[in-house]
Design a protein that fits this description.
The protein is about 50% helix and about 15% strand. It is α+β, with helices and mostly antiparallel strands and about 425 residues long. It has three domains: about 35-145, Butyryl-Coa Dehydrogenase, subunit A, domain 1; about 150-255, Butyryl-CoA Dehydrogenase, subunit A, domain 2 (Beta Barrel); about 265-420, Butyryl-CoA Dehydrogenase, subunit A, domain 3 (Up-down Bundle). Residues about 1-20 have low confidence and may be disordered. Bound molecules: flavin-adenine dinucleotide. The site of flavin-adenine dinucleotide has 20 residues, from strand 1 and helix 16.
């Protein structure tokens, strides 16, 4: 795939030198923000598919009944969209990160998690599953018929992700696991619940963690659903592990290598997570604009009132910032650059931005926004957890600030510290 942006690297030593005006202009001529023809064609086909297979009536029904749209998801994979971004040797269609973010954002315009698109989960399974279960796992994921859940969070270990207490013991022919996971998305319906556990013999928390793929059901593993205020297409669960024995073949990756393995795709996962919230915000923004134009009060559309225009303007600025940040970071990833700071900025910007847009959406829709007939309330409920899960806004803020200040310190101040 061609990349969609060809600017020079603003962080290289050369470009940080002072540039004459005409050179700067010449460089700017190379900036290209458009998607490639292939990406545009793919987006068109995907939108057409999603309009047909994921109509709002289906998602509304699934949300009300708290069920996952199994058939629509299966069709997504049958149509080949689920293979986008998966390496060729695994039967996929290789794609760059820009394309994966594009697909993710379009899919999430239609529903929160009504589709299991996740090329990174497939790559994770290819990397980590033992030879005995690898083929079965990959076939299940590539057909969209199987799905995994992932549980690290525990009642005593949330933001402090390394503070888990779940432990395992090697025994003849396998492992015995004891512990308690919480907010374990989709665990009750998953085929494998992938969990983290520590070897109690090792003190260093980062070296003690091992991943296990526990088939669901397994004796000793009890999963219960937790009531939540949103994201109802997939259950949020609590998992209890009591002397849960699993054979050796369910070791997921290297023993004691769990932390390193989790970090392997960490930044890409965070970026794709931001693309999900971008997709949701695009829908909320389209809905609030349509309503501002059509709702008549005092003899004119409410969009003519300046206090409504202020919200529309603010949300447009937020949405465009989200888009620019997500696709620029994806482009950086495709160029092999570090996205350590930018992936965190994307997640923070997109979850906070999406929340603001959905909340403005409720306000602009007035009473209708508060009623369940309109999807805005669903978007608003689904948006809320973005600021808590997978790195809360507070944790991201402190991490970004720490990394930016460290980077600034390396350059000794001035605009060079900002990569300019
Ligand atoms: C719907 C849902 C689905 C989830 N799915 C999964 C899943 O599939 N797998 C999984 O492993 N986990 C999952 N989680 C867990 C999620 O990642 C955690 O909720 C998150 O890490 C925060 O942990 P906590 O809820 O224990 O909050 P805490 O860590 O207790 O934090 C409480 C508050 O304190 C703030 N805080 C904590 N530390 C600091 C600090 N150093 N500085 C400033 N503020 C701080 C937090 O930002 C937050 O506002 C899910 C959570 C939810 C709600």
């Amino acid at each position: 795939m061609r990349t969609f942006w060809k600017s020079s690297d603003t962080r290289t030593k050369r470009s940080r030198q002072c540039m004459p005006r005409e050179r700067l202009e010449r460089r700017n001529n190379y900036m290209d923000f458009s998607f490639t023809e292939e990406q545009e064609l793919l987006a068109e086909n995907l939108v057409e598919f999603m309009d047909r297979e994921y109509p709002e009536s289906l998602i509304k029904e699934c949300d009300e009944q708290k069920i996952f749209p199994v058939e629509a998801n299966k069709k997504f994979y049958e149509a080949g969209f689920g293979a986008i971004g998966v390496p060729e040797e695994l039967g996929g269609v290789p794609a760059d990160m820009v394309t994966m973010c594009l697909v993710t954002s379009i899919v999430y315009r239609y529903s929160w998690a009504g589709c299991t698109y996740s090329p990174l989960s497939i790559m994770n399974a290819a990397d980590k599953a033992s030879p005995e279960i690898r083929t079965e796992m990959l076939e299940g994921l590539m057909s969209g018929e199987k799905r995994h859940s992932f549980g690290n969070t525990e009642p005593g270990a949330g933001s402090d992700a390394a503070g888990i207490k779940t432990s395992y013991k090697k025994v003849d022919g396998g492992y015995v696991i004891n512990g308690h996971k919480i907010y374990n998305t989709y665990a009750s319906c998953s085929d494998y619940n992938i969990i983290t556990a520590k070897d109690p013999e090792i003190d260093d928390p980062y070296k003690a963690v091992t991943l296990f793929a526990i088939p669901n059901p397994t004796p000793g593993m009890t999963i219960v659903d937790l009531p939540t205020i949103g994201q109802w297409l997939e259950p949020t669960c609590e998992t209890f592990l009591e002397d849960c024995f699993i054979p050796d073949k369910y070791l997921y990756g290297k023993e004691h290598g769990g932390w390193v393995q989790l970090m392997k795709h960490f930044e890409a996962e965070r970026l794709l997570c931001a693309a999900m919230y971008l997709g949701q915000a695009e829908t909320a923004f389209a809905d609030l604009c349509a309503y501002a134009n059509s709702r008549i009060q005092f003899g004119q559309p409410i969009g003519k009132f300046q206090l409504i225009q202020e919200k529309v303007c603010r949300d447009k600025i937020i949405l465009e910032s989200m888009r620019n940040m997500v696709f620029r970071t994806a482009w950086e990833y495709d160029q092999g650059k570090s996205i350590r700071i930018d992936a965190n900025i994307c997640k923070l910007l997109c979850t906070e931005g999406n929340w603001q847009i959905c909340d403005d959406g409720i306000q602009i829709l007035g009473g209708l926004g508060y009623c369940t007939d309109h999807r805005m309330q669903r978007l608003w409920r689904d948006a809320r957890v973005g600021r808590i899960g997978a790195g809360s806004s507070e944790i991201l803020t402190k991490t970004i600030a720490k990394d930016v200040l460290r980077e600034a310190g390396q350059y000794g101040g001035g605009t060079r510290a900002l990569g300019i």
